[in-house]
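Input set for joint prediction.
Command: fold jointly, output tokens.
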Amino acid sequence: MTSSRSVRAQARPLASARRDSVPSALAVNTPTSTRGFALDPRSPYTRITEPTGTSCTPPVAMNSPSNAHPELLDSSTLSITFAQFLWRSSPINGTEIATTGRSFMGPLYRGNVDAMKNVRWGIMGAGRIASALVEAVRQVPGGEVVTIGSSSRERAEAFADLHDIPGRHATHEDVARDPNVDIVYVATTNDLHHANTLAALERAKPVLCEKPFALNHRQAKEMVAAARERNVFLMEAMWMRFQPAISRLEAIVRSGRLGEIHSIQANFGFLAGPHPSGRLFDRSLGGGTVMDLGVYVVTFATMLLGAPDRIIATAEMSDEGIDEQAGIVLHHRNGGLSTLSTSFVADSNMEAFVSGSDGHVRVHAPFHHSPTLSIERRGTVVETIDTSYQGSPYRFEVEEVHRCLLKGATESPRMSLDDTLMVMRTLDRIRDRIGLTFPGE
Amino acid sequence: MTSSRSVRAQARPLASARRDSVPSALAVNTPTSTRGFALDPRSPYTRITEPTGTSCTPPVAMNSPSNAHPELLDSSTLSITFAQFLWRSSPINGTEIATTGRSFMGPLYRGNVDAMKNVRWGIMGAGRIASALVEAVRQVPGGEVVTIGSSSRERAEAFADLHDIPGRHATHEDVARDPNVDIVYVATTNDLHHANTLAALERAKPVLCEKPFALNHRQAKEMVAAARERNVFLMEAMWMRFQPAISRLEAIVRSGRLGEIHSIQANFGFLAGPHPSGRLFDRSLGGGTVMDLGVYVVTFATMLLGAPDRIIATAEMSDEGIDEQAGIVLHHRNGGLSTLSTSFVADSNMEAFVSGSDGHVRVHAPFHHSPTLSIERRGTVVETIDTSYQGSPYRFEVEEVHRCLLKGATESPRMSLDDTLMVMRTLDRIRDRIGLTFPGE
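tokens >
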């Protein structure tokens, strides 16, 4: 039994907003040290209060919950060229972030990144999401895609020609070996994330790895350990985490307007067919809704309510042995329930709801890059917030990677590796409940 | 594992709409016999096709899925006085309803109901829902509330005076003994439904019993057995079941417009506090969200997707030992997943979503008596349907009771006792998962 939160809810001011359970993702931008670096006062960044410590994310939404358009400040970074940054290294290595206990600043990472040059991206995998990242990088000043590696030279050549990329490699591993590459984007199928990421980290290449981060927690742990041992940047490409709507949502939750947060619903279902073919339906490639869609709803729920301590799930399995649909309930360690659903066969509402004792936020479809939030109370919409934007939805994660690399951070505090590991552990437990395993696990 | 529905979904026309799994509630109006009765051609009912067989519900929505406003036809019954009904008894007793195998027509029930007189209601329990039913009965021609019984004479007198009811009894049981009573409405706390209903049935009084029907399946089974043995009418007061929005929703599902139905979400959460007092929080009175709100979401899901074969649930328990919040996933025997949530502590969205391979219906808040349905497909609203009405939301169940009594039916085919038993069994299993028991169980 939990303690009687209904009683506490009376006694506590609404603005407390379950502060005792705000997970690390919401709290990392709280200054914990006066050590660290500051940006050049001439930098556009000086328009906002730069935290000291180890955060590499402009902490706009968190420090200014009443700010009308934090996403505009995100966009403002688009106008910053690398030359405008005054690169200042942290005088102290290993500054601790209180909420996670992890250091995001190892012995100063310099890697291949030079503040006066573009960040040079090399991509492993030549699929749809790789194309999307090429577009995103091109919308973000300070980056360029220099090479692509695929499972064959033909595929690499075709992709490179189509996207006008100078480099091309006949294997994924060649991208890791390429001296022109500053950061590797792992965009291969789920089953290859582990090996591809390790190949890059072994050569001290920073990595942005597509979600789901790995097939399981064990693989993820190895990847994280490899990055931490070498003090090399690693991040899960959970692009939802960097959406303007998510920053706004977090600010609303922290403002206490919803009272104490008790309940989350998120529903990620679309018709992935009609043909049950392709990687989503392929068990050998790490398919199924839990891996591809569950990773979103679990990240969404845990980013607001923290790690779960009870996990239940059931699913409908396809003849191919993957879950076509799943229903998941998380009980969070610090209280709150999340009721989550995923589907490849239902054209669903794709919304999320974050409900407190004094109202809820409707995260309009598609919730993972929502154009609109509504604050609703007792059946009435009390505020509608436009969180739409132009341009690639993936550019926000690219910006985060650039910020982190420029600061020498080895992790993003907004999508920390501890959070990724927690999500992977949760996915493991969900798969255990529904009886889904992958070959060679 | 279920069979590969993703493959079947391709092969089957969209309009098949999971016909193989349409539960009884959707199918009972299909004529299964030419036996039965017909209404007087002068009756307003002759505007619609009267089914033969044992249905006592005007089958408007089911037989005319394209009918724009079936609720208007429901409303038209308001203008029918009992004298306008030509009472015709079924020439054949025991006509079987194919989909349930149950007889809703025992040896012709005549009871105390006379077609030329009002149905005389006696109410056990003097709380809020009793007041609501008084109002509803007064909005439906052909009925009157003749007496009220409470736990004390004072409470009964106060209620009767307030509502201008002639009879009043110092105990609930006295209502069952009152010769002026045609039907007993059991509106006591959850823990008393079983005893109160049995007391009425023992005296061959028809009963409308508030939801949740009983504390558990065992009690419900005894109540149903008592009614069936005596061929006396009994129905769970699941008023949601008779809402215009629900009829429209069933018609949309049957029309095949959503393709095959795969997934349901329903969320019933509101702030029941701030004080954790009253029957909802009292374990000795059968409190908790599963009993009071779970009964709605489970009924909603099973009415569309049929009985569940896998049930998982987890909850947050209060210091008082009841569930303050619960998350429930049902896997339905014939396929489909329902992801359901209940809460007394979160001001939630109160919506339901019914999703098929070709779109979903949003059942707008409050879903259990929704004023609006939206048909949505791939993120776009393709149709909005007004299902609002004036007057008491409880009058539709009162109309159903009157129809059934007048026809001599011992069960409502729209809210059958088999469905009630299935829901109670499901609630038992949910309580088992969350560890909720009631004193004396």
